[in-house]
Amino acid sequence: MEKNAPSTQDARLTEVVIPKENAVFWMDGRGRWQNRHGRFEHKRIIDHFNRSIRRDKDGYFVTQVRGDVIEKVYFPYEDTPLFIVQVSPEIPLRLDLNTGETILLDPAALFVDSDQLYHNSGDARIKFTDRALLAISPYLEDKADGLSICIGDQTWPIPDRCPCP
Fold it and tell me: Which of 37, 56, 83, 123 is found 20 to 30 A from 99 (Cα to Cα)?
C-alpha cells in the first residue's frame, strides 16, 4: 500500500517535513478529517486530503506541492488512515478506498476487531466505513460459530482480531 514514488519533477523540489506532533489536523476513528475548529466539511478539501495520503518508513502523511516546495505532513489518526468507502458488487468484489485506490476483496484478509470489519492489504489495516458495511452486508452471515462471508457457492470464516503476526 505504499504510494510514495516521487516523480522526476518532485525530486527537484525542496522537501519540508512536518512531524505528526506539529500537524494541525488529524483523522478520527471513522475516517473524518478534523482540526481545532471541528470536522472538515468541504468535500473537495476532504477528497484532496484523502487522495494525498501516502506512507513511508516513518508512517502516514499527506503531501502537496506549493511552488518549489513539497510539503510532507505526518498526521495523527485513530486506528487507521485507510478506509473502504465503497464496495462494487461485481465478482470479485472491488473495494474503493478513501485514497482513490481500488483493491479486490480477499476474503481471507478480512477480520473483525472490536466489532469493526477490516481488510488487510499487505501490512495495511483498512477499515470498512458504515456505508461500505451496508454494501457488503448481503454477503455476510452471522453463524453460530462466528461471522462469515459468502460469495457465490464459497464461504470463508471471518476471524476475530487481526490474523497478523
Answer: 37
Q: Let me know: does 87 contact 132? Beta carbons within 8 Å.
A: yes
What letter would DSSP give residue 135?
A: H
SS3 22: helix
Residue 144 near residue 126 (C-beta atoms within 8 A): no
- Residue 61 has phi, psi (to 5 degrees) of -150, 165
Nearest of 165, 136, 146 to residue 157 by alpha carbon: 146
pTM of the model: 0.87
Residue 150 corresponds to which amino acid?
C
d(CA 62, CA 81): 11
Tell me the per-residue pLDDT of 139-165, one tens digit each, with 9 for 90 and over.
Answer: 999 988 889 999 999 999 999 985 555
**Residue 66: predicted pLDDT:** 86
Are 16 and 70 within 8 A, CB to CB? yes
